[in-house]
Structure formats: structure tokens, C-alpha cells
Amino acid sequence: MEQILSGSYSTRSTSSVVKSNYDDFSAPIPYRSARIIVQGRVLYVNDGWLAELSPFFASAFFGEKTLKEVELASDVSYDDFLELLRVVFLCPRRKPITVSNVTVVLPLAHRFGMAVVVKRCEEVIAREVGTMSKAKLFEVATVVSQCDRHSYAMTALVDTLSSMSQRELTTAQFSQVPGDVVADVFAAKIKRNQMKKTKWCCLF
């Protein structure tokens, strides 16, 4: 058994991951027998399918050593990784990525190089950004900025945040958003206000 993967993206357990009837990957089946150890617990996966999605797992399972058991770094949460598996595998159906679990799935998908899953996360964010509460917007913006600050999901978030009032943006929650994102939001807000002034002047 080999312990691998240390990275700059931390993951965490979250209460937003709702318990469901999706598979818990705790028992092997003929086409799902490779083992991933997360926080001392075993998850059985289809290594071929996982390798198709992730260059990290392609290297781990089919690289020079051809492992059948991989232990992830201690900062990877068991609950969060299980949620990732549920949105990747049919168990018996694939769990959808939603506003509720996107902040769990996106960091792990980015960490393991799952471009297809990252794209699905960004599509959900861009599509649902208008339905998010202020607290959720701040949370999602923080997570997305840690993965890809220049993604179109981040652009959608910045655009929505910049439409908020100055008062809404001076809350304790917004103060937790990374400084570069705050700068982008206020730059977008200034541009938005300038466009409004220009439009108003054109009426006269």
C-alpha cells in the first residue's frame, strides 16, 4: 500500500452533503475491486473508469507500479471523496452536482485533474448563480477562486456579486472571501456604475 497525494487544496467534511440511497462503495464487486483508502476506510472503485477521468488515478493504478490499492493524503475527507465518487459513478445512478454539493465536488475534481467533472461543476455554478443566497455566493466564490480564478464560473460569480449593494458587500461573510476576488468584484462594480452613468447621460 502506498500513501500518495499531498496538495495545496484542502478538503473538508460538510453538512451540506445529504445522506442518500446512493452506493457507499464499501464492498467489492467484479468490476469494482480496486481499493482507495481514505482516512483509514476502504472504498472499492472501478480503476479503469477512474483512470479515464483522472490523470492522477491513471498514474496511480496504471503507472510504473500498477497499484491495486492507493491511500490518499490525510487532508482528504472520507465523506467528501465519497461524494465525488457518487457524482462520477453510476451507483446505481449518478448523483447530480447541485448548489448543495458543488463546493465539495469541485475542489476534489480540480485536485485530481478531473476536467469533465470540473466542467460540470462550473456549468452548475454559472446556471444557478442567480438562485444562491448571499452566504452561498460567498462560499462558492471562495472555493472557485482556489481552483480557477479565471474560469467562466468565477466570471458569473463576480458579475452577480458586483450587483450587490455596498452595504451587502461589507458583511462579515464577504470579508472571508480572498482579496483578489474582492478586488475583482469592486472593479466590476465600478465598471457597472460607469456604464449606468453613461447610459443615463445618453438620454439627454
Key features of this structure:
single chain, 204 residues, alpha/beta, Potassium Channel Kv1.1, Chain A, 8 helices, 4 strands, BTB/POZ_dom, SKP1/BTB/POZ_sf
Query: Helix/strand-derived class?
Result: alpha/beta
Note the overall shape.
elongated
- The gyration radius over C-alpha positions equals 20 Å
For the largest beta sheet, what order do the strands appear in spatially?
Answer: 1-4-2-3
The level of helicity is 40-55%
| Residue-averaged pLDDT | 86
Which series of helices and strands comes N to C?
EEEHHEHHHHHH
Pfam families: BTB
Domain BTB: 32-89
How would you concisely characterize the structure shown here?
The protein is α/β, with parallel strands linked by helices and 204 residues long. The chain is 49% helix and 8% strand. A hairpin with a 2-residue loop joins strand 2 (34-38) and strand 3 (41-45).
